[in-house]
Design brief:
9 helices; mainly alpha; 2 domains; elongated
């Protein structure tokens, strides 16, 4: 009976956490859709998420494309299928690696930053001060970050797709000895609109998840500096797990049939 009670406690705690997250999300979105609107705050978060994440996204994408080309050549050369490398690179980058790796990198950078910033405001009672000044913390702090994440991560994924495919192109041309013309032709001939669309859909979902997890854990942090550190860790871990989980369901939605 003690074992069953433990399982029940864990399950009920999980349901309570999901309920708190759902209520938090609903209140943030509803409050953000009502005036007044904080356009400057939204623009600031868009710059923070989009512009300042470009270096890490670019480096991740170009080396991912380069390694993917090398590994594909190593495997496909055993079956005399080297001509498929361009197709594998472009489809892997646009469908999976671009959105997922970009989401994970942004989760490590932005999710942690959001949790630390809002968590510090919580433990130093700045959020309570906003409430005292008749300013909704969820409207001013949470909604701009969620909206900026949903808008900017697809832009980052577009950049990651281009740079990742370019990284595979550089390795294939200059190291593996492919001809530039046939390689580019094979790249564009097999790329379809749904490949890019599915990746951008994933990117918007990942941006929502990363921003929401960072804001949620920061907003509910407590216990001083140690609590802020715990909230930051929880934000990154939960965002990363949800990114991988939602990636499967979105992939099944687009390509499951």
């Amino acid at each position: 009976m003690n074992f069953l009670a433990t399982i029940g406690r864990i399950f009920l705690g999980f349901l309570a956490s999901v309920g708190r997250l759902a209520i938090f999300t609903f209140n943030a979105i509803i409050s953000g859709l009502r005036p007044p609107y904080y356009g400057r705050q939204i623009l600031r978060q868009m710059i923070e998420i989009g512009y300042y994440s470009l270096p890490v996204i670019g480096l991740t994408a170009i080396f991912t494309g380069a390694v993917l080309a090398l590994q594909s050549y190593s495997g496909f050369s055993r079956f005399n299928a080297e001509s498929s490398i361009a197709t594998v690179v472009v489809l892997s980058i646009t469908r999976e690696l671009g959105p997922v790796l970009s989401g994970l990198m942004v989760a490590g950078r932005i999710g942690a930053a959001f949790a630390a910033e809002i968590g510090t405001m919580r433990v130093t009672e700045q959020i309570d001060a906003l409430t005292t000044l008749s300013t909704s913390p969820q409207k001013y702090l949470v909604f701009p970050r969620i909206l900026a994440g949903v808008l900017m991560l697809p832009c980052l994924v577009i950049v990651a797709d281009i740079i990742g495919v370019f990284g595979g192109y550089l390795v294939s041309i200059h190291k593996l000895g492919f001809a530039p013309g046939p390689y580019l032709t094979s790249t564009f001939d097999f790329l379809k609109r749904i490949d890019v669309t599915s990746g951008l859909t994933k990117a918007a979902a990942f941006g929502f998840i990363v921003s929401l997890m960072g804001c949620y854990h920061g907003y509910h942090s407590k216990g001083g500096a140690q609590g802020v550190g715990t909230a930051t860790t929880n934000a990154v871990v939960s965002a990363s797990i949800l990114i991988l989980l939602s990636n499967y369901f979105i992939t099944a939605l687009f390509f499951g049939s």
